[in-house]
TrEMBL record:
It comes from the Bacteria. It is an enzyme of class 2 (transferase). Keywords: Methyltransferase, S-adenosyl-L-methionine, Transferase. The keyword Transferase applies. It comes from Gallintestinimicrobium propionicum. Its EC number is 2.1.1.297. The gene is prmC. Substrate binds at N183, P184, P185, Y186. Methylates the class 1 translation termination release factors RF1/PrfA and RF2/PrfB on the glutamine residue of the universally conserved GGQ motif. This is Release factor glutamine methyltransferase. HAMAP family: RF_methyltr_PrmC (MF_02126). The lineage of its organism: Bacteria, Bacillati, Bacillota, Clostridia, Lachnospirales.
Length: 277
């Protein structure tokens, strides 16, 4: 079958299944299977697709039609200009989280030690190490399956200065850090049933559920960080769009100073950070 015709079939199947951006996903899956680029659809649309590639494409289409996330099917996601491996055990890195990384980078100096709590795929810590000099870091997560993904990403990126440890928040963590960063679970428990099926059914629940008000992990981390931050060290959080004031207040009440809230590209509150003196 011609490349262009196969793409049209894929687009139709995904649209019929109610997949958002069916056109884009159909194209990306076809490129993944055929090892092609967007240019092939425009310039080489009449090329014949091998039967094995067509079969592989149809299998992926069937899975995507079941609302399995595209990134779990291809096994990767770009973040901060880097390619990270992902699977069902980790949250898929999102562009919103790049705002968190960029804010940390503004305050990151050579030789700093970084702690990344709820590290998941390791995308936050590994991006910070990749774009800094002589820094080292620890990524902690409750899920050993997630840490396997993080270690794989560290190996792929050649980041040997990252250590990944398993445990509940600060339990496996030793020493002090100039920077502590976290994108913790922050979705209110009663909101989770309303999430997109891709997220609700296929991403790890323990990385989503932040308790009744979505703030459970912020409370724990804000207090626990006091024992692990150097004097003048900073704590950075990604937050939900409606949690800025609440997280700022929690940090200020705990004694953090110069607490700020930063908005994302859509103008929504996305990052809160403060300094512990």
């Amino acid at each position: 079958m011609e490349y262009r015709s196969l793409y049209a079939i894929g687009k139709e199947k995904l649209a019929a299944a109610g997949i958002p951006e069916a056109d884009l996903d159909a194209r990306l899956l076809l490129e993944y299977v055929c090892h092609t680029s967007r240019n092939d659809l425009l310039v080489h649309g009449d090329r014949e697709v091998a039967e094995t590639e067509q079969q592989a494409y149809e299998q992926l289409l069937a899975k995507r039609a079941e609302h399995i996330p595209l990134q779990q099917l291809t096994g990767e996601q770009e973040f901060m200009g880097l390619t990270f491996s992902v699977n069902e055990h980790v949250l898929i890195p999102r562009q919103d989280t790049e705002v968190l990384v960029e804010e940390v980078m503004k305050n990151l100096h050579d030789g700093f030690r970084i702690l990344d709590l709820c590290t998941g795929s390791g995308c936050i810590l590994l991006s910070l190490l990749h774009y800094s000099n002589d820094c080292s870091g620890v990524g902690a997560d409750l899920s050993e399956e997630a840490l396997e993904v993080a270690r794989k990403n560290a190996e792929q990126l050649g980041e040997s200065s990252a250590l990944f440890v398993q445990g509940d928040l600060f339990a496996p963590v030793e020493g002090k850090f100039e920077i502590i960063v976290s994108n913790p679970p922050y979705i209110c428990s009663d909101v989770i049933p309303t999430l997109m099926e891709e997220v609700r059914e296929h991403e790890p629940m323990q990385a989503l559920d932040g308790g009744a008000d979505g703030l459970d992990f912020y409370r724990k981390i804000i207090q626990g960080a006091k024992e692990h931050l150097c004097g003048g060290g900073q704590l950075f959080f990604e937050i939900g769009y409606d949690q800025g004031e609440a997280v700022q207040r929690l940090m200020e009440q705990a004694g953090y100073r110069e607490v700020e809230c930063v908005q994302d590209f859509a103008g929504l509150d996305r990052v809160v950070f403060g300094t512990l003196w």
